[in-house]
Amino acid sequence: MPGTTQPIPEASLRRLPVYLRYLQTIDSNVVKYVSCPDIAAHVHAEVIQVRKDLEAAGIAGRPKVGYELLKLISQLESFLGWDNTKDAFMAGAGSLGAALLGYTEFVRCGLSIVAAFDNDPAKIGTRLRGKEVLHIDQLAPLAQRMHVHMGIITVPGGAAQQVADLMVSGGILAIWNFAPIRLSLPPEIVVHNENLYCSLASLSQKVETLLRQRRAASDSAQSSTPNAEEVCTNEPA
Amino acid sequence: MPGTTQPIPEASLRRLPVYLRYLQTIDSNVVKYVSCPDIAAHVHAEVIQVRKDLEAAGIAGRPKVGYELLKLISQLESFLGWDNTKDAFMAGAGSLGAALLGYTEFVRCGLSIVAAFDNDPAKIGTRLRGKEVLHIDQLAPLAQRMHVHMGIITVPGGAAQQVADLMVSGGILAIWNFAPIRLSLPPEIVVHNENLYCSLASLSQKVETLLRQRRAASDSAQSSTPNAEEVCTNEPA
DNA sequence: TAGATTGTTAATCGATTAACAATC
DNA sequence: TAGATTGTTAATCGATTAACAATC
Lengths: 237, 237
Fold this sequence. Notes:
2 copies of one chain form a homodimer. Chain A is built from 8 helices and 9 strands. By secondary structure, the first copy, chain A, is an alpha/beta fold. In chain A, α1 crosses α3 (47-56), α1 (10-25) crosses α4 (69-80) and α2 crosses α3. Chain A is globular. Chain A binds a DNA duplex (24 and 24 nucleotides) through residues 9, 11-12, 35-37, 46-49, 51-52, 55, 60-67.
């Protein structure tokens, strides 16, 4: 069916910016074409995976030649939506909010955080990393008036659902949620959860396993049965 | 082979803390047993997925009865390594570092950030959220002396590899990396990358797709061919 | 006993990997 | 032409989902 494009796998999607970042380091005056083997070697990935990911992004190359560097970069940026910057409102003017405003590269990735919102009277009217901090009540009406479609939630878990509802009522279409709760939202809203507790679980479980194996190894070493097991849980990246 | 346990899928691992969080909200004086259907209903997951995840964590229940609440909680905590707290050193005393120190719940998840390290003379000797900020040169020797096995990297990308090498030299076994670069480390080191650009890519691509469909829909509406497509890219949790 | 839940095995689905043809 | 790379199809692998038996 024309117009019905296969959605790209999440895993591929998350690898594309890694490729893009490498491509952007290449001097386009010297190098005109890049190949999948070249990209793969530099980002420590498999050649086939790179090619499949580009294919999934709807990007084609030329056999034997490869991909035109500048064209590939712009195709990736376009696919990711990084070529036209979207304004975003951030709810929560705490330290996490400050940290996110410190990611100056976000604007090169199509994201411009234009203002922060909080309910702390002491913060209203101040500036956080140069951005105005407004009262949370203004979020919805301002989002509507300024046609802001992206929201970032850095408030505590207890306030996140309320804030998310405000965002939706203001016409926000996509939410980057850093609060460690599951948001209940209309299905058409795009939500990306950045739950650090889930990440920590992954990390700490692996460490725990590692430490247990170490203990087991040293125990068996003491009982003169050395059989330390090699462990490799390093992430591809 | 006895002792050779199947590693749990990453996806299952990331769901376990969600179940655990729900279980911890239950009054153990009232409820003694919980079932997969119950958990699934509360965390908006599938019953089979919950059961399979628990099975993957090596946790067994009793047919018809379910899982003993307090036992299940402690089994999950034990599996995740959240029952014995590990000390961690954090490299980078910036706003992201401050934000992470603000996650007071981390200690309940087995992670205690005991000190921060930086190379900015203005920061050395100060305190960040009550934690001492020491010179980065002290990280390796102190890690060794204090038997700290976990490291958190919140420094800029350019300094991350250097800092990671320091950590490894100090005997650190696991690294939670918030710098947007791929670290080259010995394979036995456990690394978890928290690359926000990858997350942003995922989010912005979906938003871009959504906006394009909207435009296409409104265009075709103008040309009297209304066929707006419903889109649902909401994440499970 | 009946019904609800876990345990276990099989089927499905999708992502990754492999193999080979097409191309420059 | 030969060789390297992309394009395309098939095979593999693993996670998810389904089905049904075992259990209390």
